[in-house]
């Protein structure tokens, strides 16, 4: 038995169920099978409406697997930096594709994504956020490509990283860490702490970037390392990252000595090299740092924690958010605000000091109704403030 209409056709199958079919671009598509003819016709009406508003998706398009599409997605992005591409490859290989790779794009439901994310977040909270953001980006591209109608990435807050509070070093520990490093590397600790530089920024410094006359350091490049250990020199990601910083007085002498003793006279010479004069590698620096932090009895400290220490100390001195953003090379205020927690501690100290002033003056708060109605005001004629002076 067959029924025809303006759009598509419904036909009764030998099983007794009704199938909705329609033609598009020379191919016959199935809209599914239903228990009643009315349901099949309703499905065709929905498909026709999707055509009219440009929302139709080829049912076969979403049958590509997540592994195949994500691999192609990465290939189609030649503009990614080397380190970003390596990060995406690792996230896909280690955390996304093992669980979601065999699924088709159409088969990835919000509940499936939620289960995957919750399981990963228990083991690797920070990595789970990065992996979710990558997956969400891939699925949005699949929507743009017309492979699925909407993204299944609907887990609220899953892409937001909640970084744990990093440990800090005391000023005394900074000195111990400095002394524990080889002479040619001691300046690394000073620059990381008191100039708040990242490791890559430190390793990328050249003689030309140091202005001893004006006591400044200019950040114009950084040196990072690929998965195979190759050195990669690149410019800062943002305009804010390219900055000129004043060098604290306590660092200037050490910096001058380092330039005289360990840096070649060429203006493009790197500040930090090995004993043989070749550019210092991340592995060499890490080996020296690992030994130094054991001497300081702070095995929990990472080199990047010295930058965190320096920015927190800068906040404690009263640095504004804008000043911290410049110092850190941050393009947004949210990143700089994390270092201002120290000012809250300082605020408690100030509050206690203010309270001590009141106690020293013999002033105490009271309810005027319990004190015979006498009101003492700091300003003659102003009865808005009620207090008693003993």
Keyword list:
hpI Integrase, Chain A, GCC-box Binding Domain, 390 residues, 45% helix, alpha+beta, 14 helices, DNA polymerase, domain 1, 4-stranded antiparallel beta sheet
- Per CATH, the superfamily of the largest domain is Intergrase catalytic core
Low-confidence stretches: 366-390
Query: In which range does the helix fraction lie?
Result: 40-55%
Q: Helix count?
A: 14
| CATH T-level fold name of the largest domain | hpI Integrase, Chain A
Report strand %: 5-15%
Let me know the largest β-sheet: 4 strands, antiparallel
Sketch the topology as an H/E string, one letter per element: EEEEHHHHHHHHEEEEEHHHHHHEE
CATH architecture type of the largest domain:
Orthogonal Bundle
In short:
The protein has 390 residues and is of the alpha+beta class. It has 14 helices and eleven strands. The strands form four sheets. The protein has a four-stranded antiparallel sheet with strand order 1-2-3-4, with helices on one face.
């Amino acid at each position: 038995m067959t029924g025809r209409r303006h759009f598509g056709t419904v036909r009764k199958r030998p099983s007794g169920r009704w199938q909705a079919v329609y033609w598009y671009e020379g191919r016959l598509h199935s809209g599914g099978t239903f228990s009643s003819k009315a349901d099949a016709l309703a499905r065709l009406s929905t498909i026709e409406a999707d055509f009219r508003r440009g929302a139709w998706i080829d049912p076969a398009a979403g049958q590509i697997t997540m592994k195949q599409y994500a691999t192609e997605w990465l290939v189609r992005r030649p503009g990614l930096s080397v380190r970003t591409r390596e990060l995406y490859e690792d996230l896909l290989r280690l955390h996304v594709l093992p669980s979601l790779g065999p699924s088709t794009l159409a088969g990835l439901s919000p509940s499936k994504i939620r289960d995957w994310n919750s399981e990963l977040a228990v083991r690797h909270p920070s990595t789970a956020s990065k992996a979710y953001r990558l997956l969400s980006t891939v699925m949005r591209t699949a929507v743009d490509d017309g492979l699925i109608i909407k993204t299944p990435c609907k887990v609220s807050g899953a892409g937001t990283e909640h970084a744990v509070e990093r440990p800090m070093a005391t000023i005394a520990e900074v000195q111990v860490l400095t002394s524990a490093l080889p002479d040619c590397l001691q300046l690394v600790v000073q620059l990381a702490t008191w100039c708040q530089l990242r490791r890559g920024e430190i390793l990328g410094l050249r003689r030309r970037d140091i202005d001893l006359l004006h006591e400044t350091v200019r950040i114009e490049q950084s040196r990072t390392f690929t998965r195979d250990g190759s050195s990669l020199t690149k410019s800062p990601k943002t305009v804010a990252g390219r900055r000129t910083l004043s060098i604290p007085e306590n660092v200037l002498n050490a910096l001058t000595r380092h330039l005289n003793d360990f840096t070649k006279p060429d203006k493009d010479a790197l500040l930090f090299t090995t004993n043989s004069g070749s550019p210092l590698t991340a592995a060499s620096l890490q080996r020296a740092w690992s030994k130094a932090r054991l001497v300081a009895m702070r095995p929990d400290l990472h080199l990047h924690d010295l930058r965190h220490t320096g920015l927190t100390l800068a906040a404690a001195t009263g640095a504004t958010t804008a000043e911290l953003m410049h110092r850190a090379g941050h393009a947004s205020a949210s990143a700089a605000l994390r270092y201002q927690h120290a000012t809250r501690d300082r605020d408690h100290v100030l509050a206690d000091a203010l309270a001590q002033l009141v106690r020293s003056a013999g002033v105490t708060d009271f309810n005027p109704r319990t004190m015979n109605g006498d009101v003492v005001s700091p300003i003659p004629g102003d009865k808005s403030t009620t207090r008693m002076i003993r």
